[in-house]
């Protein structure tokens, strides 16, 4: 799990420091050289204000007070759409204090200097183009349908098919792509959600990804996906503001899992190991959105770790994104094309993967683009089986129950291991417990007892679990408490062995 708990501690410390009588820190404004980088859009920026000033700007519809700079709240386009169909008070912005600013590029120095001097400004960075390489898999069309779904076998997806209802679950999985999946395909038409944010052209890549996640089963045709869920067409966004707005749209339209089978290209192009620099506003938006949904991303197909500038693939590298490498169909090896690195969380089949494509056809693709939807599908299946399971605990569930391969423990090729649908399903519980006091110190927004924020003791978990419920004991934990259980309860070990008593 990419540093999520460390961030929780950091956020707590930051909140504590805000209580101290210190002068507001100077605004963080990127240096002049950054504004000349290849992907910067001239005359556009993102600016974050302190909450009180942000609210004043929204209420009064006023400008920043800086000559030539016009501001619009970053969530404004999504909020307007939401208000048109639902009650506005239910809308949740991801970056409530961030604005998109436009200005005359010739006045850049004056605008940046004025923002840097404004005590209400927290952060300023340029608006950037996001060039998406969405064809990460290579196609090997096969005219004869052979039904070779080894990916489903390797992840034990078949073990959870029977546990899902024959009626489509109200779990929404967004296929976040630079093209749209073909909703008329006979193996996808029953899975299409009523919500969509994409008007892109229909393409094979998104259609293939959608089929891995949720192609209809038991219909006497084609293939079957991991989960019987709603499939949502979702645009990837071509600027950092547009991407943030897409995440905001997903959160406010009840999306549970987002699959991103692509990368953003760097200054060296899209076909080489080249990635853009991380963006703080995107990171904040992803971290905020991950409280409501699991975000899965392909690790990349460049056969590398970092580029020449030390940048790792984006969006896979961001905290709050579950990055997936590609597993070969031979000897459980890392696929020759797959990226690897400290940001990799899991691995899944990514070679010779058969799924749906346009024009009612099927084909074999390979790539980390095909690995990621296996993981997204397993996550969605867990929510279909146990709808009350908190979304923010999904990542840890999949990591704890993964099948460890390669070097013992977590490694840079496979992360925590191969995603296993059967093990994840067996670890679904009502409450969780873990004896690590540091982990338990921050109960989190869902309250204590979730897998992300487990109880510190078994007694606490048992007390809060329902009668005839299940309590999961996180693997590796040693519970030394004197334990008396006075109600019907089932104890399970999550991800290995947990010990009660000395």
Please explain how this structure is put together.
It contains 14 helices and 21 strands. Helix 7 packs parallel to helix 10 and helix 8 (240-252) runs parallel beside helix 9 (280-289). The protein is 26% helix and 20% strand. The two termini are 29 Å apart. The chain has three domains: 26-128, Alpha-Beta Plaits (2-Layer Sandwich), CATH 3.30.70; 145-426, Rossmann fold; 431-500, no CATH class. By secondary structure, the chain is of the alpha/beta class.
Low-confidence stretches: 5-24, 135-146
- Rg is 23 Å
- Major sheet size, sense and barrel closure: 6 strands, parallel
Structural class: alpha/beta
CATH topology of the largest domain: Rossmann fold
Number of strands: 21
At the first level of CATH, the class of the largest domain is: Alpha Beta
Q: Give the oligomeric state of the chains in this entry, treating copies of one chain as homo and distinct chains as hetero.
A: single chain
Strand order in the sheet with the most strands: 9-8-10-12-13-14
> How many separate domains make up the residues?
3
Query: How many individual helices?
Result: 14
Average pLDDT rating: 87
What is the CATH superfamily classification of the largest domain? Peptidase S8/S53 domain
Percent helix = 25-40%
The first-to-last residue Cα distance is: 29 Å
Based on the coordinates given, report the CATH architecture of the largest domain.
3-Layer(aba) Sandwich
Morphology:
globular
Percent strand equals: 15-25%
